[in-house]
Amino acid sequence: MNPQPGGRGRRNKSDKPHPVDVHVGSRLRLRRTLLGMSQEKLGHAIGLTFQQVQKYERGANRIGASRLYELSRVLDVPVTFFFDALDPALVGGMSAATPDFEAEPLMKRETLELVRAYLRIAEPSLRRRVFDLAKAIANAYTGRAPQR
After folding, report:
1. Distance (Å, rounded) from C-alpha 24 to C-alpha 68?
2. Does the structure show a pLDDT above 80 at 105?
3. Where are the beta strands (DSSP E) in 8-113?
4. How far apart are alpha carbons 122 and 141 in whole angstroms?
């Protein structure tokens, strides 16, 4: 970081985002996607452009405390949601690797869409049958015995 007058440090454009900012942004993206909300719609709800939401989700821009509170309200999660599953090693410094949320199975769009579709099944018995079918298919292709 380059020191600035007034004591505030600024990142150079070439500097990578802080891993905590990337984590918070990925949690923002996860919740927004699970709700089926577009970046544009979220931005409108909090008075920002979709480009600003993109920057938050990538961790390129830090999210201030009041904005994080506002996001938690709009996305109907506690503020702590954005820090859930935060690796303590990330807090220790900038040397930790920046997570790639497309490499994480739970962060892939396909997974999020599948979960959203599953949750829209209103009939509990049908939802259970879909769940059992998905497990049976997965077990058939991995060679594992079914689990109950």
Report:
1. 9
2. no
3. 9-10
4. 28
